[in-house]
TrEMBL record:
<keyword id="KW-0677">Repeat</keyword>
<dbReference type="InterPro" id="IPR002048">
    <property type="entry name" value="EF_hand_dom"/>
</dbReference>
<feature type="domain" description="EF-hand">
    <location>
        <begin position="73"/>
        <end position="108"/>
    </location>
</feature>
<dbReference type="GO" id="GO:0005509">
    <property type="term" value="F:calcium ion binding"/>
</dbReference>
<feature type="domain" description="EF-hand">
    <location>
        <begin position="118"/>
        <end position="153"/>
    </location>
</feature>
<protein>
    <submittedName>
        <fullName>CIB1 protein</fullName>
    </submittedName>
</protein>
<keyword id="KW-0460">Magnesium</keyword>
<dbReference type="Pfam" id="PF13499">
    <property type="entry name" value="EF-hand_7"/>
</dbReference>
<dbReference type="InterPro" id="IPR018247">
    <property type="entry name" value="EF_Hand_1_Ca_BS"/>
</dbReference>
<keyword id="KW-0106">Calcium</keyword>
<dbReference type="InterPro" id="IPR051433">
    <property type="entry name" value="CIBP"/>
</dbReference>
<keyword id="KW-0479">Metal-binding</keyword>
<dbReference type="GO" id="GO:0000287">
    <property type="term" value="F:magnesium ion binding"/>
</dbReference>
<dbReference type="InterPro" id="IPR011992">
    <property type="entry name" value="EF-hand-dom_pair"/>
</dbReference>
Length: 161
């Protein structure tokens, strides 16, 4: 992990890798993130930058790798997946978050974009399946409940080492 992180830095900064932040633009060059539709959200969620530039320290990078590793528990994976899908960072997945989530998964191109009717039906189906307290949003525990019923979720590795 240290080698991978330090290789994202210019040569002259590599010996200080533990005290330097890697810019988001360099993090996004990682092959594991390059094609990930949630690449920007992943950087946002794992970055501890006070500047809001989504740069990462070595510790941030380790946190990201550990969540996507095989050894991370389903609870840890689902907690971070929830944070990544919570685009407005308000602690719930509402209709706007779900629409952005669907658009990320289906692509932004006109040929792959759902019609308004299809999008509304899909969001309605997601809420019917997941919104246990029927408040129109999905909270973390509701999300984790749904995820716990999906054996594929725990196997998803996102970032390979």
């Amino acid at each position: 992990a240290y080698k991978k992180f330090s290789e994202l830095l210019p040569k002259e900064e590599r010996e200080n890798a533990c005290s330097v932040r890697v810019p988001k633009s360099r993090i996004l060059t990682l092959p594991e993130l390059r094609a990930n539709p949630f690449q920007h959200r992943i950087c946002r969620v794992f970055s501890t930058s006070d500047d809001g530039d989504d740069s990462m320290s070595f510790e941030d990078f380790l946190d990201m790798l550990s969540v996507f590793s095989d050894s991370a528990t389903s609870d840890v994976k689902s907690h971070y997946a929830f944070r990544i899908f919570d685009f407005d960072d308000d602690g719930t997945l509402d209709r706007k978050d779900l629409e952005k989530l669907v658009n990320c998964l289906t692509g932004q191109g006109e040929e792959s974009q759902l019609s308004n009717v299809e999008m509304e039906q899909l969001i309605q189906n997601i809420l019917e399946e997941s919104d246990i307290d029927k408040d129109g949003t999905i909270n973390l525990s509701e999300f984790q409940h749904v995820v716990s019923r999906s054996p594929d979720f725990a196997r998803y590795r996102g970032l390979q080492r």
